[in-house]
Amino acid sequence: MTRATTRRRSTREGAREEEEEAVAAREEETTDGPATGEDDDDDDARESDDSDSDSDGVEIELRDDIDVVAEHERAEAEKAEREAKEEEERAAAAAAAADAEGAEGEGGDGGEDKAREEGGEDAGGEVFAAAGSRGVVDVHALSMYTFGTKRARGEKDATPAAKLLRMKAQYEREGKRRSVGGICMVSQHRTPHILLLQVTPTSFKLPGGKLRPGEGEGEGLARKLRNKLQPELEDGLQQYEFDIGDQVSTWYRTAYEPQMYPYLPAHITKPKEEYKLFVVHLPEKCSFAVPKNLKLLAVPLFELYGNPQKYGPEISSIPHLLSRYRLNLD
CA 330, CA 328: separation in Å to the nearest integer? Predict the structure, then answer.
């Protein structure tokens, strides 16, 4: 082996060693260099962006441990202020009722019409009450509720097509399918949010489901809400009754297809499914428990409005349906 060959080989080996040292230095700099945690923050941001792509709603943290007392403790001053406000509203309503009775006694129907004209928004509220509607929905802060998990409740259908096939078989046995959904509202930053159950990254639904044969709509919706949102009896938490309010819409499935309509077309005499939406008045504070295979979201109304591509026409119509109500936001 010549001396020149030996020198060239030594040169190549030295260059290779320098390159390996440079790579090792870069790796060490990447690992130990920015010790500020910025890289971790970037990773978290990317993960948040991925989750936001599913929905812009607030993903509610579901905890296995539920401490109702700790989560629902409120200041006595706020409670006293709220009770004083309610007392003032009751006194004002009693005074208005007394004035209306006096006007009716003096002027008959004319006095009643005049009272309606002078009542403004309050008169509209009286019309709602006469029609069986409350006209007002108290929407409590999200922080007033505790959210936990319970055992998973498997979905009966893996795909929308499988659901339609099962619906066809049920229709042949039982006739028209009757379904209900509950509109449950919470307040976050004084903005109304709707509670939705996320089944898959692209599939959302309201709490509710199929009614049993002969079951009443309010009774069935309360049963479904207990199954989807209420803790199990063995958890030892206080049970509560869901306050089912007004029915706000009816949707019809005219064929075995995903599309539903907020009216019954004239040429359809036997719809395959009838789906009714109800407003649900949540208690001021309580604990919820969601099946582990579902994700609970609180989605703002402005996100739902005009967004049927993501949430479907039934859910995206909720902001319009709620426009008839006065929402008291915490």
Answer: 7
Do 207 and 276 fall into the same domain? yes
Name the band, by pLDDT with cuts 50, 70 and 90, for residue 233.
Answer: confident
Contacts of residue 281, Cβ cutoff 8 Å, sequence gap at least 6: 134, 137, 138, 243, 244, 245
Q: Give tens-digit pLDDT for 67-125.
A: 333 344 444 556 667 777 888 888 888 888 887 776 665 555 544 444 444 444 444 43
Rounded Cα gap, residues 26 and 33, in angstroms: 9
Same domain, yes or no, for 107 and 164?
no
Please give the structure tokens belonging to residue 265: 């077309």
- My answer on whether 176 and 314 are in the same domain is yes
Residue closest to 96 by CA, chosen among 106, 104, 85, 108: 104
Q: Are residues 197 and 93 in the same domain?
A: no
Domain enclosing residue 124, as ranges = 80-133
pLDDT in tens, 10-68: 555 665 666 666 656 555 554 444 444 433 333 333 333 344 445 556 666 554 444 33
Which tokens go with 27? Answer: 């790796």
Give me the torsion for CA of 30, 31, 35, 39, rounded to 10°: 70
DSSP string, 109-178: HHHHHHHHHHHTHHHHHHHHHHTT---EEEE-BGGG-EEEEE-----S-SSHHHHHHHHHHHHHHH-SEE
CB 85, CB 328: distance < 8 Å: no
Residue 225: CATH number of its domain: 3.90.79.10
What predicted TM-score, i.e. pTM, was given to this entire model? 0.63
Name the domain count of the chain: 2
Q: Is residue 193 part of a domain?
A: yes
Report the candidate in 164, 137, 124 with the shortest Cα–Cα distance to residue 255.
164
Is 91 in the same domain as 153?
A: no
Angstrom distances, CA of residue 201 to CA of 55, 86, 316: 8, 42, 17
